[in-house]
What does this fold into?
Amino acid sequence: MQIAVVGGGINGLCSAWQLALAGHQVTLFERDQLMQATSVASSKLLHGGLRYLEQGEFRLVREALQERRWWLKKAPQLTRRLPILYPLYQHSQRARWQLKIGLWLYDSFAGKKGIGRHRWLTAVQTLRCSPQLKAEGLLGAYLFFDGQMDDQKLGLWMAEQCRKAGVNIVEHSPVLKIQPDGELQLTGGKLKFASIINVAGPWSSALLQQSGLMAAPLDLVRGSHLLLPAISRYGHMLEVPGERRIVFALPYQQQCLLGTTEVRQPLDDPVQCSPAERDYLLGVYAHYFTPAATPEQLLGSFAGVRPLLAGSADASRASREYQFSWQGKILTVSGGKWTTARALGQQLAAEVNRQF
Ligand SMILES: Cc1cc2nc3c(=O)[nH]c(=O)nc-3n(C[C@H](O)[C@H](O)[C@H](O)COP(=O)(O)OP(=O)(O)OC[C@H]3O[C@@H](n4cnc5c(N)ncnc54)[C@H](O)[C@@H]3O)c2cc1C
It folds into this structure.
């Protein structure tokens, strides 16, 4: 079957790959270059998402942990196992027993072939791992493991797998309209496909709207990161004081990657870290580390927009699940995480085969 995939982020690439492996003739259209939008603005974690356990997202966490293992195994040159500290203070919001249960579940979901089991570190051991953490009130930390990636290089590696499987990748080719009968309009003319996969991330609803079709609302939530001088070879998962949110401070390419934020924004607003987000992140950093970081020490910043399934008033509690919806021959993908992109692609290919 001739299938068009619209969008060259990680979800588009993994979908195209799985469709090609299932025997379809796939053409992927990307309006700019591959891997230049949301998929390169991530926290660079291949993770189950420990905090989603609190929200009861067991299916998602289990799937993401299986997928974490797959990426680490298949692309060891672009991924690594990352030790992460969850420091606990006298004033922490979560009790040690709560974390213990969460981490036990996390390790269990990862299965026997997990990447290392969690353990408790005393305050002295914790400070040895991360000397800049504040010592006052520190009870200790849980040490656990997740995966870390170079998201751009790993996405381009997936593009390579696509090409090997026969996917025709067309960059700098914006899709202007798609129709339920399989018609796809480009600047140069119209093409007809047996199916069109709309996996344009935050722009998937806009593409339907500009095609005159009904579009389910997406929650567009900006997430920003700061780059600061390196502090430790361990990652840190930090409770934001006074909120249920967490912020990561991660070692990344000889720097410290600090993020992220959750700010709702319209699609056409610039996707960049605002001064308020910068101050918010530096505030969290100053709460945990000494000395605090100043704006002058900033080495850079970047931001991306999460295309989340609409429905939660609190963006941090919005589901990271993905969803498929058909309109004639168009299959639109909403939501999702980087880590689960291959699983999304597999289920999408199965869904297409079921439909036709
Ligand atoms: C701040 C932040 C941190 C995150 N951290 C993590 C993390 O650590 N781990 C994790 O697993 N997940 C993370 N995520 C989630 C993950 O990054 C996203 O779920 C994923 O990258 C979405 O990929 P995508 O392919 O759907 O979208 P995108 O990467 O945005 O790709 C969509 C593509 O479609 C193209 N496009 C749009 N319209 C058209 C058109 N009309 N014609 C042709 N092409 C078009 C765009 O140019 C773009 O390249 C994070 C997300 C954010 C925002």
The mean pLDDT is 95. Residues 134 and 333 are 43 Å apart (CA to CA).
